[in-house]
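Q: Convert this sequence to structure tokens.
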Amino acid sequence: MNILIWHVHGSWLTSFVQGPHTYLVPVTPDRGPDGLGRARTWTWPASVRERTPDELRGAEIDLVVLQRPHEIELVHAWTGRRPGKDVPAVYVEHNSPHETPVDTRHTLADRSDIPVVHVTHFNRLMWDNGRAPTGVIEHGIIDPGPLWTGTEPRAAVVVNEPVRRGRTTGTDLLPAFAGAVPLDVFGMRTRGLAAHLELTEDRCRTYDLPQDELHRAMARRRVYLHPVRWTSLGLSLLEAMFLGMPVVALGTTEVREAVPPGAGVVSNRPEVLNHALRRFVADPAHAEDTGRRAREAAGDRYGVQRFLDDWDRLMKEVTR
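A:
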């Protein structure tokens, strides 16, 4: 198939474009949010092809994969076709509802011609989907390999913009965790985090690394910490498990589904999480054994081939 899809979430899209299709990714001169084009920090196959808005008008398109509300109008403006009417379409909802956990109505809640595909069962449960047909296709991770060494007795945290996002990403919880074990926080716009939290640089170091360096850097840390209160299931948590890292995480949203017993410690009690962090840092053998279980669990549930197979089944149904 020829699939029109915007470059919105690079990590998710990297897995999606591993399938057997041709992926038309819009590109604009400024490479802004509606025209990023091909990724520059991920490796994508040649089947991902950039197309300008003018080129899209005459392009053969079998399916549109929407990810943001305004893309419905963009498709019509750039191709002359209406998603769900003139061309088959699905809408991938990457996020948990924001306005309220239970009463946020989805953009497509009043339409029945575009299926809404959630990335977790929790998200589908919490959104008010109205009469839109819904499904769940869980994440698929390209296996980075068992890279964990745990040579640095510190906890890795991956979060973008922790100062701006604040309580959503559990930024306010980091000082207490840093009191248990030193933290290394990876992500965009993390600079100045230690000063913002009134922590010393040693207790809270920050890094903004390109994707090809991030996994090896994470894997040198003894344990992965996921302090996020409210967001969809973070790909970084699943990637840490694939790396063979033991994980310590808040038991919110889909985390309890993703981290089975033995693969890490999941709790909403800070004292339980702090104790787990201290134990993993102090006991490398325990960390290694737990990380092995985490890697096995992630591979069983979140492998990229299962993800691609799920998508192929859905795409055949929608375009039938």
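The chain has a mean pLDDT of 96.
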